[in-house]
Design a protein that fits this description.
Structural class: mainly alpha
Number of strands: 0
Number of domains: 1
Order of helices and strands: HH
Shape: rod-shaped
Number of helices: 2
Strand content: under 5%
Helix content: over 70%
Radius of gyration: 24 Å
Distance between the termini: 42 Å
Length: 95
């Protein structure tokens, strides 16, 4: 279950990054219009999409870090523990 959650977080991060790129392309296409690039609605759209891109990238980065950390933690916890010697001492056990 935890591995599935990690993979879903990573996929969500990739989707957020793709949406941010699509928003950036949309913003570039809006600014390339020749008929009404100086109106206040175009300026408001550019400002709003800039804020949206920043938020999408930030959320994607958070989800990617959490997903990768969870995935790595699962891989590390499934690895065998210890050095294989069988009688490793705990430093806290010494008087």
């Amino acid at each position: 279950m935890s591995r599935t959650k990690a993979v879903l977080q990573i996929l969500l991060a990739l989707i957020l990054f793709l949406v941010a790129v699509a928003t950036l392309v949309n913003m570039a296409l809006i600014t390339m219009r020749t008929e009404d690039t100086d109106t206040i609605s175009v300026v408001n759209t550019i400002i709003g999409q800039t804020v949206l891109i920043v938020c999408l990238v930030a959320l994607g980065r958070i989800q990617l870090k959490k997903g990768l950390a969870r995935y790595r933690d699962i891989d590390n916890s499934s690895a065998p523990q210890g050095s294989g010697g069988g009688n490793a001492e705990n430093p806290r056990d010494k008087p």
